Amino acid sequence: MFSQARDWAAKDPDPATAAALTELLQLAEDGSPAASQELADSFSGTLQFGTAGLRAALGPGPNRMNRVVVRRVAAGLSAFLVDVVGEAAPGTRPRAVVGYDARYNSDIFAEETAAIFTAAGIETFLMPSALPTPLLAFAVRALDCDGGVMVTASHNPPQDNGYKVYLGRHAVEDSGRGAQIVAPYDARIAARINAVGALESIALATDGWTVLDPSVAADYERATAALTDAALFPSRDLRIVLTPMHGVGGETAVAVLNAAGFADVTLVAEQAEPDPDFPTVNFPNPEEPGALDLALEAAARVDADIVLANDPDADRAAVAAKDPDTGAWRMLRGDEVGALLGAHIVARLAAGTDEASGSAGHAGGGARAGVFANSIVSSRLLSRIAAAAGYAHEETLTGFKWISRVPGLIYGYEEALGYCVAPELVRDKDGISAAVLIAEMAAAAKADGKTIFDTL
Question: 244 and 375 in one domain?
């Protein structure tokens, strides 16, 4: 193990992790039990690539997230994309897009991935800045890419980072275009990663990829704001407190809410800007006790109607409101929000259908087109909401990689605060599009003299 660690330190392209490993080696050799344990864990195996990609603590060694591990994964993924596109569409140049959040080293991992993809002959786009995960998922389809990479550890602790993979265009069947990978794609990619040679054999281009214009974010914001329907639900009288939880979703979420007509949005100042240390929370997850304390304090101070919270990469959304029965603010459970959004989407569809047809509503004359879905760990209430409105419902395995693949999907959710309200835009959970429809729903309830708890 010591010789393996010394060899790693000698070849590590990152001077910071090389220096950290050299110091760790010295401490372990001097007899430090903690250093010996850390060294053993860092070199006890290799991070395994799976359907969730990679996620681990940052640091040196094959069992950590670092530039060596990311280079090898990028090289294997690029080989997979070249192969699969060559088989499906001979003569077509593969195309990929790479995004990243504001965690430590995310930008470096993303740029080196772009450099390796480019060297492999892949037409590569790099996001213009640290942006939400749903925007990367949007770009995979909007740019007609065969692959997408998002460097993020979502709501993990600050010492972690990760690497999520999406497929599209020629690399996957239609139902999986723009979605995270499932089997057997994970195994095929892992096999190509395992086949990568020595680190020095991995080619990195010095240029040749395209850094996307910020208009890609504007396109997402415009399309997401347009999900609201002011003709059917005209009220925009809603005082919102929003926290991006020190992540990358704040600017995008505010832009979407404002463009949809929600002008009264207060950002939680202490959590508004991206900060990889997440200094005001123990864990940057809206579900964790205490994570919404600052947002609830702000809500009380400005007399808000609702609190909206995104996790750091903005693919999840949490909601809190004042319970009229107790007068206390309470965060809604994921199943409660999932049912509320399902009922709201049914109401939107019914109103739009009735307006178009001039009918008095669905009279049970057959099933409507489209499917509602949730995972097996979520409530059964959505299935009853869908059935009552004449829509099909499917229950899937846990994870949006399965929910997003349901044919004819209209809306899907899982109880861990993940909601897909617009699968035609983002074939994944999206905390920003969910937030804007939650705002529409809450404003409609307020206009009727109710709260979302009354709707529940």
Answer: yes
